[in-house]
Design brief:
GO terms for molecular function: transferase activity. By secondary structure, the chain is an alpha/beta fold. It is built from twelve helices and 15 strands.
Length: 342
């Protein structure tokens, strides 16, 4: 069996999850090629797990000051190029296409009649899970952006649905937390607004990673840091807490490592608004709707969290694929959730 794996490059969550899957697929002996879209080629980093990957422009959402900018999204979208990329992608060498919310591989598979599998957090919204702002536009986006013939959704809880726990690197282990060390990753927020919030707490050491930072610099109690997979993982391991947008992958890692969590959803992004509401409902995180000194102060005063024991979902999925998906997905889900205690 040979797989083409499409990865949405917007943000880092999809890429992080795909790196974990790439290792598991390789260990299972499954030949896999990768296609990444949604981020400029020169802005991709730590791409070694994907070998000689393919790149396409794809589609991404423009964000301004912590909110989805629909006008800018439409303005920067090249639908003609997207259509050319979809039509020109030859899938004759592949038995299966996996798409993590990546539109080029998904639509090419649909047009060429190649079996496809959506493997993403977005796929969980096809099921009866908590949703906020799930209007007609959101439903069209979820069903039409990266269609597939099968779907595997990932979430923090099963909600009595056939969905799986998060795909994370379970080899990452938490170290004894350094008192008052907090990791900050708010890539869609303005640096000036992040700075104002963090300066309000001079007794906390913040390690703030942001795509607008090109080299490390120290500002009082704030370490401003460029994006780096290894450096970020090292800082996350011994941090007391994490402040981030309410995506899926980083909160999942923080919960697995037992880090207290403060999330800020992107305005107008129903997935992030739904995630924030879910985390609050499950009492897994605190939520702030705007970057707020008072929310930060309240967060810092909260006690540490116990780690969540998520299993190695990537290895289970790779084994399931290697066995030609012969086991019902419901059985796979039951076995994995039996190892989780929330």
């Amino acid at each position: 069996m040979k797989i083409l794996y499409g990865v949405q490059g917007t943000g880092n969550g999809h890429m992080t999850r795909a790196r974990v899957m790439a290792k598991a697929l390789a260990e299972a002996g499954i030949a896999t090629d990768y296609l990444v879209s949604g981020r400029p080629l020169d802005q991709l980093f730590d791409m070694q797990p994907f070998g000689d990957f393919f790149w396409r422009q794809g589609l991404t959402f423009a964000v301004s000051a912590g909110s989805i900018n629909l006008w800018q999204t439409l303005k920067q979208a090249s639908l003609r190029q997207l259509w050319r990329d979809i039509r020109s992608l030859d899938l004759s060498a592949y038995d299966l296409v996996i798409t993590d919310f990546e539109p080029v591989t998904a639509w090419a598979a649909k047009l060429q009649g190649v079996p496809s599998l959506a493997l993403s957090h977005q796929a969980s919204f096809r099921y009866d899970v908590p949703k906020r702002g799930y209007n007609l536009a959101a439903r069209i986006l979820m069903s039409g952006f990266a269609p597939a013939s099968e779907h595997i959704g990932l979430h923090w809880h099963h909600f009595d649905q056939t969905i799986l726990p998060p795909i994370i690197d379970i080899e990452h282990r938490s170290l004894p937390a350094l008192k008052n060390k907090v990791v900050v990753y708010l890539p869609f927020e303005a640096l000036t607004k992040i700075e104002t919030m963090l300066l309000s707490q001079p007794n906390t050491n913040f390690y703030c990673y942001h795509p607008a930072i090109s080299s490390a610099k120290l500002q009082q109690h704030i370490q401003w840091l460029p994006l780096s997979k290894q450096s970020f993982a090292n800082d996350l391991a011994d941090a007391e807490g994490v402040i981030c947008n309410s995506g899926f992958e980083l909160p999942s890692e923080a919960l697995f490592l037992g880090k207290k969590l403060l999330v800020k959803p992107l305005v107008g992004q129903f997935e992030q608004e739904s995630n924030a509401a879910t985390l609050a409902k499950l009492q897994l995180a605190q939520v702030m709707d705007t970057l707020s000194a008072s929310s930060l102060n309240e967060f810092l005063a909260t006690p540490a969290k116990m780690p969540l024991s998520y299993p190695c979902v990537a290895a289970a999925l790779a084994g399931w694929l290697a066995q030609q998906r012969s086991e019902p997905l419901e059985k796979v889900a039951e076995r994995l959730w039996a190892k989780v205690s929330i």
